[in-house]
């Protein structure tokens, strides 16, 4: 039981409920009309409230978009984390493969929300620097980093076999936040970015309809690609199994 002074007030609980209803309505609107079709007026109308009342919770459209993007990342992260946790039940598959398949499944099941965070940027929208969306991305990134470099020491990661990094790139990677890629030695950060780019790129191609020619074999092709990707990455880490 939490102390009374940590309990949210009735007013805060009511606000949380209202915010949750607004976000759910906005997600339904995006699913029907796509991210670019997001309209505060339409969301308010669906909830039976005025736009002015909605502004009480989200003063600007960008505030609502930020909340939607952060929630999408959080939901996607939850799916990836659940898949990664289930990896122990699939000992024949590397952790990264299982996590990547969780990522792919969420993207396919929620294509409009996936497009909201990874598709064409909404016109005039700029995510707040170091805000909720940035933190959400880092939480998901951490799962993939742990899955890819499972069991590796700092020394092994520093000795990753990658193409030679320019002094400028190395310095930039080393300057990144410690709760993000800055937690990795520069060679490992570069290897992770390459791995992530291939993984994410395949999912984007599928979500945007560019792999329909594979028919019912898309899941199998994705798994084969992820197995090859992990095998190549692990070969570049001295002593990694």
Describe the structure concisely.
The protein is an all-alpha fold. Helices cover 64% and strands 0% of the residues.
Q: Care to describe what's here?
A:
- The model has no long low-confidence stretch (mean pLDDT about 90).
- With about 240 residues, the chain is mainly α.
- The chain folds into two domains: about 1-60, Homeodomain-like (Arc Repressor Mutant, subunit A, Orthogonal Bundle); about 65-235, Tetracycline Repressor, domain 2.
- It contains eleven helices and no strands.
- Helix 4 packs across helix 5 (about 95-110) and helix 10 packs antiparallel against helix 11.
The helix/strand class is mainly alpha
The rounded Rg comes to 21 Å
CATH class of the largest domain: Mainly Alpha
Percent in helix: 55-70%
Compute the separation of the termini in Å.
45 Å
Q: CATH homologous superfamily of the largest domain? A: Tetracycline Repressor, domain 2
Question: DSSP strand (E) fraction?
Answer: under 5%
Q: Any guess at the CATH architecture of the largest domain? A: Orthogonal Bundle
According to CATH, the fold-level topology of the largest domain is Tetracycline Repressor, domain 2
Total number of domains: 2
How many strand elements?
Answer: 0
Question: On the 0-100 scale, what is the average pLDDT?
Answer: 91
- Stretches where pLDDT falls below 50 for ≥5 residues? none
Individual helix count: 11
Query: How would you describe the shape?
Result: globular
SSE series: HHHHHHHHHHH
Largest sheet: none
